[in-house]
């Protein structure tokens, strides 16, 4: 423990500067305008893995963006850890809300990050958390303390639903063979209370298009006489929740497992202040499904949110027009046992049925993934718990996250191994939002904690 | 009648080319990016009035865009006609739906315009219909047949609610003194069935902003736990109509006059084919307030339409975000006796009351205007009816339009004179829409008909 602390202390500035260089590349996978940047980022990750001490690193082509694979095999008889991460990032917009340019990283102090945090798109999700693993490997190689084999699989399409990853995993089962999968793409409760994510929600993401008249119309001459696609879309969206904020899609909840009172009481023990939560978001009150707490609403319950909506005249001033088309992007977060393909079908059938005769509706599935729950009695979980405890001096709490990493369920299916999610970011780090940041403390603490996982996992696997 | 027909025949090409030059200037008053073009258009209108034979023309500055005033006073004892029109146009977007650039006029034949129509933003609304009056004056001056005095007041802010016109009219009552106001900014039933617009709807146009959390949030970590401004906005918009498509704003209908069965039967006599209407718009069915016909819904009934909506991620691909803000532009068409200021207040109070505690709502009034109905026994109406009958060979039908010309009510109040709306465009001319056009037949027929109004109005005024 002291050795790694010292090593991190001596190389702190370099570790930060290397990450900053990586963050300068705008690897936005959702927007084809950045495709060259995404590819350049893959090359940068490859170089960093070689520098860190991998024996073999390659850029693996896929139908989409490439996957960076690296490995260091020291002994076939020792366990193998597969590290997964992603080098692509979310779009930065709304850019005008960033206090500093999203791809010009700067270090600023915040209340939660008194030692400073790196502000940049991807700082926490996931370049920063992915790069912790690269630096942890560097340390273990330099200090000759790597206790087992390690493989890296760093993809560039996570923020658009990992369309090529399944394709890659199915074709490379031997190459990816492992005893445990390690991911840092989640968060922890606080810098003084680490936690391990034991559950992820699934996802179904669709785009809907409502078409009324075949052209934009003058709202005076046609107003009130034809179905207005925007009004209709609003009405259809409104009907997706009832007065208790239950989702109204028939069959939506059929496979949702109700947690026992005990399980819910256990969850409720995690430290949480509703006042602090409301204050941090500057909202008068929370809002969600009746009879569930905030922490239940965003973890063990499925949800439906409109992520974007547009139609008609959105420019300066006023235009008295009835639009021909209105659009929305809608995503549903799913819980274990809900199948995202089935949910997508249920949504499509229900949403289409809500349309009045005066309009036509098109639903286009974007992507999705299954939910996941990992047992807390596995070797991997125990090793992670010991690592956090040794590094933070306090036992980590298992938590179910509301987020989705669609490929985790796929890994278990294809690679037959458990995934351990060791997150070091905070919910307040504004991932997917303007001013995303990652604490210097969290970044360095992650680099310190990861080698401890390697140690404990190897020992517990004996 | 023959003289004017001959004159139009001889000068047809020049009349068309002059209008095309005017249409090339993108005088979009809603978008400040075009402010210089708007001003240049005022200068072009001034020049055209001088060329047509006005004795005195001036550019009158206002707090907003200038008003072009012109006059030809031949005898203080003769009646005076005040011609009102506007030289500004609606925004052209969505530009990608235009089959030819909106400000590069081209002549194309259509089923309804076998002699061809000029396609350009403003072709019909209102540059084309305004310019008919300039050319009609030219004829009367050239042929020495102007029977009365004429004044022109051509503004540049009609498409944004004429914010400066009231200011101008109140300060220039003597200058604008007249016996009748003549406007061509409406339509007629068809090229074989002329009609005179006897009613206009009022307007209240507002913009709403719904704010939830103080920043965009990750929809996985917060989805289901906080009010999503887009879902909330959709729910609020949906609640503005009930299941019969009645507007739910308390007090909204209090001052709406119900027409008698006889009046409604009279209206129903206007030629109208619901099938042709649906086919022209490519819609399976119409949609609107229960117990009213299509022609009633868009003329004698008040309506509420969302003209634009936006919020969250609207770019390419998928972004799992909960937006901090969502916006909509909403307009209400009003009928006589509904006061637009009062309705704006009723809307604001009601809409704000629909918001759950988790969001903040801001309603910003854009502009508005009162509805108007003109009696059909006035000298002006009779003169217009005779002019159409002489020119088209068939009696015109009085119709109530669904559109709004907010300043017509103002004219009656300030200038104490009736307004006659002689429209020559067709509803299918796509005003406010991509591919706006104005039939060559309609343009020339208007130029031929207007001098007949001057003749009959002067005679009937004796």
UniProtKB/TrEMBL annotation, chains A, B:
A Pfam family assignment: Peptidase_M20
InterPro entries: Bact_exopeptidase_dim_dom, Cyt/Met_Dipeptidase, Peptidase_M20, Peptidase_M20_dimer
Peptidase M20 dimerisation domain span: 199-358
One GO process term, biological-process aspect: proteolysis
Alphabetical list of SUPFAM superfamilies matching this protein: Bacterial exopeptidase dimerisation domain, Zn-dependent exopeptidases
Keywords: Hydrolase, Metal-binding, Protease
GO molecular function: metal ion binding; peptidase activity
Protein name per its UniProtKB record: Dipeptidase
Species of origin: Flavobacterium zepuense
